[in-house]
Design a protein that fits this description.
The structure is a single chain. The protein is built from 8 helices and 10 strands. With 234 residues, the chain is of the alpha/beta class. Strand 7, helix 6 and strand 8 form a beta-alpha-beta unit. The longest helix is centred in the C-terminal third of the chain and has 16 residues. The two termini are 30 Å apart. The chain binds adenosine-5'-diphosphate and magnesium ion (MG). Adenosine-5'-diphosphate (ADP) binds next to strand 2 and helix 1. The site of magnesium ion has 5 residues, from helix 1.
Length: 234
């Protein structure tokens, strides 16, 4: 369970995120939609403690910056940041050591297999294409079996097969009780997947609704998105 209250982040002159509040319950998949520059990546980076911010973040009741909370997080950044001189398998070993995981090898093999990386285990980070790096980044994030998982524009750079596999993983993770927050500026990429949709623009959440609330309304998500983000409300 993720709770965010009054999250605010100012970079020098830019108010990137302003008073953002929402929650993602256990087993829920929330999608954070918004045009480029809306504040999606900044929101995620604040929640996981990469950026200083105002406001409160609670993960299963633990303050966002506590070790207990960090143990529960998984994060797939917008741009993968692998180690040039570690192999794919060494990345997983590194994560396993950092999190003190035991019996992780089989799970690691399975993750690599699902994302078509099993024959890349000995490749160095710097030898991988952008899409392969993205897949390794996903494997690293999921290896510790996090309970609250952030994916920042995860489909960008992935081939159709990996996108299909990733969507299947999203469903499995939320079925297993994890809370997922997926940011994207491409609405179609999350169709049929989400339980809660948040639409952001200029640092504000302009719409927050559950699947049920949305289905009771007349408007399509895409129409709501364009009405709010192009409509000059802000
Ligand atoms: P999104 O992920 O929705 O595209 P971002 O969170 O990356 O949006 O950016 C939100 C706003 O904050 C934008 O106006 C962007 O220019 C600004 N911004 C992002 N990162 C920085 C930074 N490191 N320094 C200053 N401004 C930034
Ligand atoms: Mg972004």
């Amino acid at each position: 369970m993720l709770e965010v209250r009054g999250l605010t982040k100012q970079y020098d002159k830019t108010l990137a995120v302003s008073g953002v509040s929402f929650e993602v319950r256990d087993g829920e998949l929330a999608v954070l939609l918004g045009p480029n520059g809306a504040g999606k990546s900044t929101t995620i980076k604040c929640i996981i403690g990469l950026l200083n911010h105002e406001g409160e973040v609670l993960v299963d009741g633990h303050p966002g910056k506590s070790l207990q909370a960090k143990r529960l997080f998984g994060y797939v950044p917008e741009t993968p940041a692998l180690y040039d001189m570690l192999t794919v398998w060494e990345h997983l070993e590194f994560i396993a050591h950092a999190y003190g995981l035991s019996d992780w090898q089989e799970r690691g093999e399975k993750l690599l297999e699902r994302l078509d990386l099993e024959d890349k285990k000995e490749k160095l980070g710097k030898e991988l294409s952008k899409g392969m790096q993205q897949k390794v980044s996903i494997c690293c994030a999921l290896l510790p079996q996090p309970k609250v998982i952030f994916f920042d524009e995860p489909m960008i750079g992935l081939d159709p097969k990996a996108i299909k596999e990733l969507k299947a993983m999203f469903t499995e993770l939320s079925d297993a009780g994890a809370s997922l927050l997926i940011s994207t500026h491409i609405i179609d990429s999350v169709e049929g997947l989400w339980d809660r949709a948040l639409i952001m623009k200029d640092g504000h959440v302009l719409y927050s609704g559950t699947k049920r609330e949305f289905e009771e309304g007349e408007e399509k998500l895409e129409d709501i998105f364009f009405r709010l983000t192009e409509g000059g409300l802000k």
